[in-house]
Amino acid sequence: MTATGTDRADTAPAGAPGPDALHTDAVRALEAWRPADPEQDRLRLAYLRHLAEQPEGLYRSCLPAHITASAAVVDPDAGRVLLTLHPKVGRWLQMGGHCEPGDRDLASAALREATEESGIPDLVLLTRDGVPVPAKLDRHQVRCTGKDRPENTHLDVQYIAVAPPGAQALISEESLDLRWFDYDRLPELTDHSVRDLVARARELTG
């Protein structure tokens, strides 16, 4: 894989693709991706079924499940990953969140979230044949509609974002804390999904 940049899109500029284009791209990206792991392929097919059944399936308004996008921000030269201490979850996570109408594609959504939450402007996503591709998928339960509301499901599409060597992170209001961790010294308050994603990032950028 190689790394490539993607323009940030917080709002849809004139002539930009609309929500239907984002849906079309998500289907394209997931149909084109062929994970070697059978469980990951089962998740990929489940995501595609969700999108086939839900035209608005990429947005938080789609309940009980919706697609999200995230990215592990890594500095391969230093062998480290940047994690955020999420205020709602209380765990160290990769950067990520909900898709927005201005996002042209899933990769743009992942890169936008990674840039906003890391404060690093020059992140680049890993690509294959010049196209950003997912590193893995993760399906998990959350309460993104409110702590007193029922749990819903995030169908997360996870990418790898490479930071410039020695990049300095800047914490945002979305984080309780933001720190670099050595690949081999991840904090205790991480789950298997984060550890698996970091291992995948290490494999792909090593």
From TrEMBL:
PANTHER family: ADP-RIBOSE PYROPHOSPHATASE YJHB-RELATED, GDP-MANNOSE MANNOSYL HYDROLASE
Single Gene Ontology MF annotation: hydrolase activity
Source organism phylogeny: Bacteria, Bacillati, Actinomycetota, Actinomycetes, Kitasatosporales
Region (Disordered): 1-22
Ranges where the Nudix hydrolase domain occurs: 64-203
Cofactors demanded by this protein: Mg(2+)
Low complexity compositional bias, start-end: 1-21
Organism: Kitasatospora putterlickiae
Pfam families: NUDIX
Transmembrane segments: none
Leader sequence segment: none
Keywords: Hydrolase
The name this protein goes by in its record: NUDIX hydrolase
